[in-house]
Specification:
Arc Repressor Mutant, subunit A, 15% strand, alpha/beta, two-stranded antiparallel ribbon, elongated, 6-stranded parallel sheet, 8 strands, 2 domains
Length: 225
């Protein structure tokens, strides 16, 4: 029989740690081997217990969970970090990934979702809560665009609109998606064509396809009028 997945819980609220320990304790393949209430304690307990997974909150008094994540993954690369937090903002997500976290889930995930996330991270997978995946993909696309001399001619809004053009959206649909007036969108489209030396929407769609541009998940418009 395979050994249990050894887990350290890090959260500045003891009641949260107790609740998590109770949930995980019901799973025979999971074993909580330590707890910490601060970033400094997290590093100390991880070093002492050598867990498979550290379930880490990122905002704690006296130190950041992101700093603890960075130190733990630097000193003990075999230890996997699963960020469990209430915060879904871009900065927190990207900073956690940059610090070496293997997973990022929100506390609304539910007991079974957390258990599965721990198992997946322990097995070597990387995962993101579905609610933050779009933010990370958008940032990856922005980084890739910055390295492309043609895409670098466009700002973030122009790249978003170009992706929507490629998806076959009309100016009215794009206006709804990006919360601008239709006239403003027409001006953006004209500017994109000029910057990229494109003659029409078909050429714009072909250009976007070559560059791998897709509609930004944060663009919500579906108006078909």
């Amino acid at each position: 029989m395979n050994r249990s997945i050894r887990i350290v819980l890090v959260d500045d609220h003891a009641v949260v740690r107790e609740g998590l320990a109770a949930v995980l304790g019901r799973c025979p393949d999971l074993e909580v081997v330590g707890e910490a209430g601060s970033a400094a304690q997290a590093v100390e307990v991880a070093g002492r217990t050598q867990p498979d997974v550290v379930v880490m909150d990122i905002r704690m008094p006296g130190g950041s969970g992101i700093d603890a994540c960075r130190e733990i993954t630097s000193r003990w690369p075999e230890v996997r970090i699963l960020v469990l937090t209430s915060y879904a903002d871009d900065e927190a997500v990207l900073a956690s990934i940059a610090a070496g976290a293997s997973g990022y889930v929100l506390k609304q995930v539910g007991s079974q979702g957390l258990v599965e996330a721990i198992r997946r991270v322990a097995a070597g997978e990387s995962l993101l809560d579905p609610s933050v995946t779009g933010q990370v993909l958008a940032e990856v696309r922005r980084a890739a665009a910055a390295r492309d001399p043609e895409l670098a001619l466009l700002n973030d809004q122009e790249r978003k609109i170009l992706g929507l053009i490629a998806a076959g959206k009309t100016n009215r649909e794009i206006a709804t998606a990006v919360y601008l007036s239709e006239k403003t969108v027409r001006n953006y489209v004209s500017g994109i064509f000029t910057k990229l030396n494109l003659a029409n929407r078909a050429e714009a769609a072909a250009f976007a396809a070559r560059k791998g541009l897709r509609p930004d998940p944060s663009a919500n418009g579906t108006d078909k009028a």
